[in-house]
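Sanity check. The docking grid for 4'-deoxy-4'-aminopyridoxal-5'-phosphate depends on where the pocket ends up, so I'm generating a full predicted complex first rather than guessing from homology. Inputs follow.
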Amino acid sequence: MSSTPLQVSPIAVLKDAGRYQPPVRPAGMKLVIDLNEGPAPTPDILARLAAVDGETLRRYPDATALETRLAARFGLPASRVVVTAGGDDAIERLCRAVLSPGKELILPSPSFEMFKRYAKFAGASVTEPAWPEGRFPIDAVLAAVTPNTAMIAVVSPNNPTGAVATADDLRRVAAAAPHALILLDGAYAEFADEDLTALALTLPNVVMVRTFSKARGLAGLRVGYALAPERVADWMRAVGAPFAVSSVSIAIAGHDLDNNDARLAATVAQVKVERERIRRVLEQLGAQPVPSQANFVLARVKDPVAVRDALFAQGVAVRAFTGKPGMENLLRIGCPANAAEMDFLETALRSAFGR
Ligand code: PMP
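Predicted complex below; grid placement will be based on this.
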């Protein structure tokens, strides 16, 4: 083998970014709540999966029918809906479409780490106003806007905190930066008290990204979508792979959309009860939970790695953020969206905190 170095992208940060590291988790966990996933699929989903036919597998996928169904739900023309390989793919396409060297992303942080990665791969710089919890840092975000701001991320509810932006925040950000794309990431939107979707669809520089991965419990399918202004939807189709989402995934997501709204509502109701219970238990155990409107609770904990390991020992996988500057004392606990598992989690938490 030749040792001649390969040519690499001139974007200097590329080599430093490394790969996404999924949470550390021992084998044999009984309850995995470290990636904010949803509940297990219902039998009708598995039956639909078993009914996938040979033609579906043989042909290249066509997401048009799913885009049309989503568009009807949101009262949009199908041209404004882009189905993507999870929300990740939507975020990545948007970063590639609007970010480049000399441009800036404003990302209230901590937040979902892929934003920063995709921005760096596009050669852009990232400005990170602090948003540790509570209200969206509207003043800091507005103060950070420059003529080079090409994207502002409004992740609401935010990951890993569960904090939300309001309609007023979204309106003000969009108005203050008409030259920038506002990416409203609604991966956890179903769990929030206020739904920003209708407002987002009226603003000319806002694109909303959503997913089947969380409240619909279908992360393995890799189906997300963007509700975008027409020209932004065009950019997303231009920069994306022609057949990004598998035909099987499109079929199952369509089935879920047509049949499982009651199940979705039940999941959301269950999660709202669970996150309050997790918050209360953590508070009793001396941790400092952050109010959350997502399907997880973040807490400040004296020794998160020790608590995480004590939970691992009981078969419960939660997320500590070792090696992430500023996040060393945080622990993120997902809501199981299942009553029996929630009881199990409470018992495990009490034991892990030594009470
Ligand atoms: N946005 C946020 C805030 C997330 O937390 C995640 C997943 N962790 C995503 C987007 C992407 O999810 P997916 O690609 O599964 O839709």
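Relevant for the grid: The domain at 12-41+262-352 is CATH 3.90.1150.10 (Aspartate Aminotransferase, domain 1).
Also worth noting: The radius of gyration is 21 Å.
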